[in-house]
# Entry
Amino acid sequence: MSDQVNIMEEIIGRYPRKPEYLIFLLQDVQADLGYISKEAMQLIAEHADVPITQAYSVATFYQSFRLEPKGEHEVRVCLGTACHLKGGQRILEDLERKLDVATGATTEDMMFTLNSVNCVGACALSPVVLFDGKYETNITSSRIEKILKQLKNDQTGNSEEETND
Ligand code: FES
# Structure
């Protein structure tokens, strides 16, 4: 927690106390901490000299800002037209079950954040799921299972081989 305070102090020190620096403060906090916590938002609003409601409305207007911490791995399911026709929504629901998390949220162990995304430009290879930005195309439920298992193993340093079940 004190690390976060130090980072916040350092970021705030970069900018004058003026409302026009609000967006820069938000961007820097997001870049350094990965998300904008309630405490960070309070400090940003105070420093930019704007009401906290204004700071929140700017942060929620731009989709690139996160108000919740992100998991170690980000899983994004494409729900563009081509992927939707190939079962994108079913894949997303399957991931919600497998990870026990709702879309837009992070698992309790902070390992995975699950999101949907619009067309990522690989329609011919749909359905597509991105694991930490890496495209997995023509994805199936069993491949998802293996990838999740591999990511969990990597996380725990467990070198267990994939099984062919
Ligand atoms: S709709 Fe999914 S990649 Fe285009």
